[in-house]
What does this fold into?
Amino acid sequence: MSKVVIITGASSGIGLTTAKFLSSKGFKVYGISRRNTAGEDFVNYVGDVNDTENIKNIFEQIYKIEGSIDVVINNAGFGIAGAVEYASNENIEQIFNTNLIALVKLSSLAIKYLKLSKGKLINISSVAGILPIPFQACYSASKAGVLNFSLALDSEISRFGIKTTCILPGDTKTGFTKARVIENKEEGYDGHIKKSISKMENDEQKGLEPLIISKTILKVLKKKNPPLKITVGASYKFFVFLNRIMPTRLVNFLLKKIYG
Ligand SMILES: NC(=O)c1ccc[n+]([C@@H]2O[C@H](COP(=O)([O-])OP(=O)(O)OC[C@H]3O[C@@H](n4cnc5c(N)ncnc54)[C@H](OP(=O)(O)O)[C@@H]3O)[C@@H](O)[C@H]2O)c1
It folds into this structure.
């Protein structure tokens, strides 16, 4: 019988590519996103990950139909850029709610199903969760939260046979760049914000193909004991390695040079 996968944020980019890819590999895929771009490859439930009651109902419906939920991939997320000084409270709350709080709530909900299937939980963080980027401070913090949450959660739920993996993609060519919320106020930052945003946008649009992340996810699904965290992209793996051996002040200095 096909393994049943739920993936959030399946209407674009990494989520859409992964939903189609896993479906082509014989998985039964259900997406959850606010837009429906699923086509015939998989079923998409329209929903906002912040709407806890709706997400709970969607999980119940899928379990009723399939009798098992084997894999949950928390992928939905978006970016925000600009000076923290000028960030609106609404945007600050929205980024942490969608990227971190909703992911925590959804993981909590998923555990009872994954316990039954001895399944897998995959959380999509970002290299920015390890190498925090100026003018993307809230985004970086939300993704650092995803990483630490995943590691701690694994120690709680591995006893039930559930495997948790956190994936940290580097810049990836998706709808993420266009969807990014930008706080435009620049006063006092001497054009550094504009330069920084243009650099990050450029890096993303020249970045990894989303299929590379999908293939990494497939490898995780095939492994009996997948790694707890995986950085995707050769150069990003190298930067993450450097971060481990270099003093924090030096790493932050370099990040400021590149993005600050
Ligand atoms: N692209 C990169 O460079 C990069 C690098 C590292 C990590 N990531 C992470 O990878 C994940 C996927 O991003 P992507 O690059 O594929 O960007 P994307 O093309 O913009 O896709 C984002 C997906 O998240 C969904 N989403 C956003 N807010 C949602 C909400 N409130 N409820 C339900 N779904 C929501 C969107 O669907 P709807 O708008 O239809 O709801 C969309 O399907 C994100 O967590 C992102 O932080 C991306």
Q: What stands out?
A: Residues 8-15, 33-35, 48-50, 75-78, 98, 124, 126, 169, 171-172, 174-176, 179, 204, 207 surround NAP (CB under 6 Å). The two ends are 51 Å apart (CA to CA). The mean pLDDT is 97. DSSP finds nine helices and nine strands in the chain.
